[in-house]
Every structure is written in C-alpha cells, then in structure tokens.
Amino acid sequence: MGNTDTREELLHIALEIFATKGYHATKISDIVKQAGVAQGTFYWHFKSKEEIAKEIIDKGKENLLAAIHQGYRQTFALTDDMIQSTTALMKRIFTFAQENRNLMTFLLVKGQGADPEIREAIEEALISVEQAFKKNIQRATELGMLNSSHNTDLQATMLTSLVMGTLSKWLFGPKHDLNYVPKFSVDEMTEELVHFEFFGLIGQRRN
What we know:
By secondary structure, this protein is an all-alpha fold. The protein is built from nine helices and no strands.
C-alpha cells in the first residue's frame, strides 16, 4: 500500500471509529490496529489524534460545500424552476449525508462532546454551510428572484436550521440513535422539505 493509500485508509478507519465510539473513547492504538499498521506509520502521516480528526472534518466540509455550491445561480429563474433546482440541491445534500453517514454522525452527534478544538472545527464547518446557503440566497436576491427587503442573514440561519435539523432527525431519529433506519426516502424528504421551505405550514401549492 502506497503512502497516499495508507493515509486515506487511516482517515477512513479513524472516521469509522470516531463515529462508533466517539472522539474521546478512540485511541490511536484502535486506529492502527484496525488499519493493520504500526503506530509509527500513523505518526508518519499525522502528528496526533486531533490532527486526523481535523482533517476528516475539513475534507467532509469541502465535500458538503461542493454539493451546496452547485445550487449557486447564474441566471434568473421563475418559481417553478426555483423549486425544481432547490429540490435537486436538497437531494444532493441528503444523498451525500446518506452515503457519508459516519461523517454526519461525527459532525452532528459524536463530535459534539469532543475536545474544544474539535468542537470548534465542527462549528466552523457548520458555519461554512450556513455561509454557503447565504451566498445562494444573496445571488437569488441579486437576480430579482427573492424579495430584497428580507434579511439574508436571518434567512440563511433559518434555512440552515431547517435543513440540518431535518437531516439529523431523518438520519438518526429523535433520540440520535446511530442505528436508526430512516422512515422516508431521500425523494420523499426533499420534496416535503422544499415544499415547506417555499410555502410553509399552509402549503397551498402542490402539483
């Protein structure tokens, strides 16, 4: 196994153990044992458990933001197209979360009780998600698709809370059960989420 492959394998295994046992309960010896490498090999690639955890968070953040940035608009669109494109965006986010369940477990559940440095890295990742949503909202406002009198900071905060809160409950249930099986498909969740985002509780519009 080459150096790059070994590094990626250590990242993959570390994330799996962090998501299962939590950051505090995970030891470097756990990671190297499962990876089948010597402890010195770990330290060749990473200085500490904190460093590998931060790289996992950074890589996960980059991949999640890449999905959100695809929703950045270049041209004006009418409401129907906005709904369609927003649904596609939410499907990308929910599919990413489903395919990267260990990452979402670490970010939303197991990483919350970690050391301050790790919690701060997770918080920064979630703030970056909010900023990406804000950028999308600002662009839609510039194009005249959204009301310019609304506060984009508040809109981004509410949208992020809606998306990430819904995503967390969908993946882990109300009790943050890591073995929870979602009751609804990605398509069902995103369709309902986007309808609520655009039309709220009254929900007058349905096609």
